[in-house]
Design goal:
This protein is mainly beta and 249 residues long. It contains 3 helices and 15 strands. It has a 15-stranded mixed β-sheet. A hairpin with a 5-residue loop joins strand 4 and strand 5. The radius of gyration is 17 Å and the shape is globular. The two termini are 22 Å apart.
């Protein structure tokens, strides 16, 4: 659930490449469903707000688990990111995570030299009210770079009509503490139904791998409405059961 929520907390940010799609002020809500055998319950909800202001996109994602799920694993997460509208480059990313009894606060500031993106990362971690770690590190990558929130806009902006089924695109994604390789694969058009509303969608899969090429989590899938470019469904597997996120229109 944490990975899928992080993915939803999950830019229109190809390095040095302008976007063909402009985002305006919006507020999107999702319900997070947990399924395991006969159990199929709402485990939480996510709200993602975007503000187009002063040449920047300011986005915030707030995720929380449902009251019944709090008894097993309480989640209260907030993600923030700032993206330049002119060139669609991320400038800052922040994750404030309250998960069970742990508190983690990641702040990532971006800077660029030529085609290289540097991410200056600071992590503050607290367990049961006591600070455990204060880590600082710098990550770097070439080409397209995203983080766990800006990727939410990036995937909405891709030129799916020009892609053939099976088309693959890879980029670096910063989680705040480490970098991974994110591979997006286009799986074609598919009609899906969410809350009795039918959508014609672009279906894509996501694969996360480490520098060594090892998968860091199971694959995930997203269904993006072809007209509004709003992701209407996301799905991922868990060690026990699966999680599905549905857009609440």
């Amino acid at each position: 659930m944490r990975r899928l929520i992080s993915f939803l907390m999950l830019g229109m940010l190809c390095w040095g490449i302008a976007s063909a799609y402009e985002f305006h002020n919006e507020s999107l809500k999702y319900k997070v469903m947990f399924k395991w055998g006969l159990i199929n319950k709402q485990a939480g909800d996510v709200v993602i707000n975007l503000k187009n202001q002063d040449g920047m996109y300011h986005s915030q994602l707030a995720a929380k688990s449902a009251s019944w799920a709090d008894k097993f694993y309480r989640v209260r997460d907030t993600l923030n990111c700032d993206i330049q509208i002119q060139d669609f480059l991320p400038m800052r990313y922040e994750k404030i995570a309250h998960e069970d009894k742990d508190y983690k606060h990641d702040v990532v500031s971006y800077r660029r030299e030529g085609a290289t993106t540097y991410a200056d990362c600071t992590r503050y971690e607290t367990r049961e009210g006591k600070v455990r770690k204060d880590e600082q590190r710098t990550l770097e990558a070439m080409g397209t770079t995203v983080d766990m929130l800006s990727v939410f806009y990036y995937m909405r902006n891709l030129d799916y009509p020009q892609w053939s089924t099976g088309h693959v695109l890879s980029m670096t994604i910063f989680s705040g503490k480490r970098k991974e390789l994110l591979t997006i694969k286009y799986l074609g058009n598919e009609e899906v139904k969410c809350d009795n509303v039918k959508y014609n969608t672009y279906k894509i899969s996501f694969t996360f791998t480490s520098d060594g090429g090892k998968k860091t989590s199971d694959d995930m899938w997203a269904w993006i409405d072809t007209e509004t470019r709003i992701p209407v469904k996301l799905e991922g597997k868990l060690p026990v059961g699966s999680v599905k996120c549905f857009y609440v229109k």
